[in-house]
Amino acid sequence: MIIAGLSGANGLDLKLSQLLNAELLRVESKTFPDGETYIRFYGGVSGETIVIIQTLYPHQDRKLFELLLSVDTAKDLGCKEVITVIPYLAYSRQDRRFLDGEPISVKTVLKLLRAVGVDHLITVDVHKVESLRFFHGNTVNLDPTPLFAEVLRNEVKAPIVIAPDQGALSKARELAYLLHDSEYVAFKKYRDRVTGKVVHELLEVDFSGRDVVIVDDIISTGTTIANIASYVRDRDASKTYVVCSHALFVGDALTKVRMSGVSKIYALNTVKASEDVEVVDITPLILEAVRSLTRS
Ligand code: R5P
After folding, report:
1. Within this chain, do residues 174 and 254 fall inside the same structural domain, yes or no?
2. Looking at 116, 142, 168, which one is the last position of a domain?
3. Mutate which of 189, 220, 245, 258 for ligand 1 pocket (most atoms within 8 A of beta carbon)
4. 216 close to ligand 1 (CB < 6 Angstrom)
5. Distance 68 CA to ligand 1 centre (A)
6. Are residues 161 and 136 in the same domain?
7. Which residue owns the Cα nearest ligand 1 atom 10?
């Protein structure tokens, strides 16, 4: 087996190659002066299973194209099969046509990956797991909730776990269960599809003196988390923790979240972590998934 990390491997390639005792293939990646992407493999892949790791943030389009070039090249050079690990799958939130005339972007991305030859696709907490049906090959979506529960277990006391919207409800339920069967609630969130404005329907729950854990898959502008965190702060919650799989923190998002009264943020290393965030390593789950795909 060969491990190849692209520009968005975020160190996971090295960790994986060491843990699997597998060769780490050097892949050069650069951008030509006119903006075109170039890659080159320094080593053969013929007859091998190759695991290509590439997260798709930041610079989603460039990283995606680099990945497409790499998979196609691996297949051209005669590799046996391609396992692609995409820790953060960009475009996953555009999983349907919200407005007439829009694309289903995640479908386009998954079709492209299959077309160039990805055999197995490993993702982490993809926005909606049902979207993976658009990939006509084998998919594995990793659930980081047990990892979050492990780090929070000794830190929070009888917390109330909050889903900031209905999409995060099952995540909140699972996390609450793993945190000694704690209480959980889900807000209703409405996003104006044209302006992007977010409004939460308020919940009449007594947060006073309680530790709160807000769980979500993605933090982008930070508005969703900040809205909920300031809501519970105004209702005298004790400490507020945030757990999130993909902390993109666009612009001033981190400051916005901090200002809303959040004590600690836990995020996966599916994208490069911002300072001030407690990183939860996703490597053990990726390792297990790669092992189970290559065992047979
Ligand atoms: C949306 O449904 C996602 O699960 C996140 O809640 C959303 O992407 C967060 O975005 P933002 O940080 O911009 O509020």
Report:
1. yes
2. 142
3. 220
4. yes
5. 27
6. no
7. 220
The type of residue at 291 is: R
134 and 151 fall within a common domain = no
Mutation choice for ligand 1 from 171, 200, 219, 262, CB with most ligand atoms inside 8 A: 219
Handedness of CA 178, 179, 183, 185 (dihedral sign): negative
Same domain? 154 vs 130: no
User: How many folded domains does the chain comprise?
Assistant: 2
Catalytic pick from 15, 63, 171, 189? 189
267 Cα: distance to centroid of ligand 1 (angstroms): 14
The answer to whether residue 21 scores a pLDDT higher than 90 is yes
CA angle (114, 120, 124) in 5-degree steps: 105
Peptide bond into 146 cis (omega under 30): no
Indicate whether this model's pTM tops 0.85.
yes
List the single range of 89-93, 132-136, 155-159 with lowest mean pLDDT: 155-159
189 is catalytic: yes
Residue 153: give the domain boundaries: 145-280
The preferred substitution site among 189, 199, 216 for testing ligand 1, maximizing ligand atoms within 8 Å of CB, is 216
- 142, 175, 195 - which closes a domain: 142
pLDDT in tens, 111-135: 999 999 999 999 999 999 999 999 9
Closest Cα to atom 8 of ligand 1: 218
> What percent of the chain lies above the pLDDT cut of 90?
92
